[in-house]
Amino acid sequence: MIMPALKESQQHNSDVRGQVLATLAKLANTVGLAKISTFIEQNDLELLLRLTMIELQHSLMTYKSTEKMTENESNSAIYNYFIVLEQYLSVFGDESLQAHQVLLSRMCAEMMERIEKQLTELVAVLSGVQHFSDVPLIIHATTQFLAEWLQCEARAVLSYGLAENLLGLARLARQNEELNLMEHLLSGFYKATDSEKGGETYFSEKVGLAEFCFETLRNMSEPRPKALELCNEIITEYFVSLLASDGQIKRMWIAYPAVTQKHNACPSFGFGNLTCQQNLSTGL
Question: Which of 103, 129, 149 is the last residue of a domain?
């Protein structure tokens, strides 16, 4: 009954569509998107995902924290939209899970291509969340979703066009001491640098991913194993890319060995027969 209502709602205004879609999204999150997909037609599953993306973008961009009468309702709808889409994203993180196999079996290649195209367009808009919202709750939830999107390497390596916005969100997460969220973003950034264009963009002076990692290590008051590992891995990739392009290592990096030694975490990558400490202390 709900899917026909959703189709019918498209002929009405966005408020009606939003109400119907919010109900369906809540149901999908209660039962599970994979379970829902077995009860509806393949085309209806695509309709659900694509309309959810449209409604999520609309809800985020029009949400005002001053609208007290509808705040809880809006929060609930936005939360459910995010969860529906995150269930879709998680399929590609571990395709061996039974629920994920069920969902994948309900999608053909052409359908998935259309969904991914719209998802990419949505992510491009949401990466600029700090430009269209000043609501901390909205920024945090959006950043979490973007970090989850980055966990798929096939998507992450295509994120270079959004690198500046995404790193800006990582800076905000670090500033707000949302360190788990920052680490989740760093995990995606590490995947993003696995392509030539991704590494070139993320390591550029304009974006400054390696410098961000160095600042994170330098200002870390207490060791965080995941952050230490990710920052050092990313910095290693940065040095490797510099060597491959005959780039010049900036003088600021002379402090890197001391910073890593402080946390007992200096990576063992080498430049010829030199350790990171030897190379940076003698080569600058």
Answer: 149
Chosen domain end from 149, 165, 185: 149
Q: For residue 257, which of 205, 199, 216, 217 has the smallest C-alpha distance?
A: 217
Domain count for the chain, please give it.
2
pTM for the full predicted model: 0.85
Burial of 77 (0-12, 13-18, 19+ CB in 10 A): buried
SS3 74: helix
For residues 183 and 99, state if they share a domain. Answer: no
Burial label, 211 (beta-carbon count in 10 A; 0-12, 13-18, 19+): middle
For residues 18 and 55, the answer to whether their CB atoms sit within 8 Å is yes
Strand partners, 271: 274
Q: What tokens appear for 208 in the block? A: 């400054």
Does one domain contain both 169 and 105? no
Q: Which domain holds residue 112?
A: 1-149
Structure tokens at 108: 């053909």
CA angle, residues 270, 271, 276, in degrees to nearest 5: 55
User: How high is the pLDDT of residue 143?
Assistant: 98
- Locate 221 and state its tokens: 């008051």
283 and 254 in a common domain: yes
pLDDT digits (tens, 9 = 90+) for 102-115: 888 889 999 999 99
> Count of CB atoms within 10 A of residue 107's CB?
19
| Cα-based distances in Å from 191 to 8, 90, 149, 157, 243 | 42, 16, 11, 7, 20
Place of tokens 């196999």: 101
Mean pLDDT in runs of 10 for the chain (284 residues)?
56 68 87 89 92 94 64 72 94 80 89 96 98 93 97 95 98 97 98 95 96 95 92 94 81 84 59 41 43
Q: Is 212 found in the same domain as 168?
A: yes
Residues 165 and 145 in one domain: no
